[in-house]
Amino acid sequence: MKKDPQKIVEQINLLVSELATLAGAPGNRPAAQGKTTSSKGEKKTSGATGGIRVLIEDGKLDSPKQLPEIAEILKQEGRHYSAPTISMGLLNLVKERTLTRFRDKDVKGWKYVIRR
Q1: DSSP code string of 57-88
Q2: Average pLDDT over residues 65-81
Q3: Could you point out which of 29, 36, 38, 86 has its C-alpha 20 to 30 Å from the C-alpha of 53?
Q4: How confident is the model over 35-50, as pLDDT tens digits?
Q5: Of the candidates 50, 48, 73, 49, the residue with the CA atom closest to the CA atom of residue 61
Q6: Domain housing 77
Q7: Does residue 30 form part of some domain?
Q8: CA 22 to chain centre
């Protein structure tokens, strides 16, 4: 039994447009599942900076915390990063003005907290 290639193409096009409509983006390809894209207005949740953003959303940085405390919380969340990687992520969020940091007189190092 021989199939008509033109009919197959029409069926594929119909199914693709149906899928795009179900995904909520007619004419666009759906974004990768489980990962936020980095287009304007959206923030990534991958990498150390993304892990810290998740902590911010969960309210875990409402009180000032040092780098080792933040690293431990990230480990509990299943995100294992080196201290320099977490430090760079924190610094990037300070530059974005999402977090603020200050020196504690009693402790050597910085404390980070959500900027209000």
Answers
A1: HTTTTSS-EEHHHHHHHHHHTT----HHHHHH
A2: 94
A3: 29
A4: 444 455 556 778 899 9
A5: 73
A6: 47-114
A7: no
A8: 24
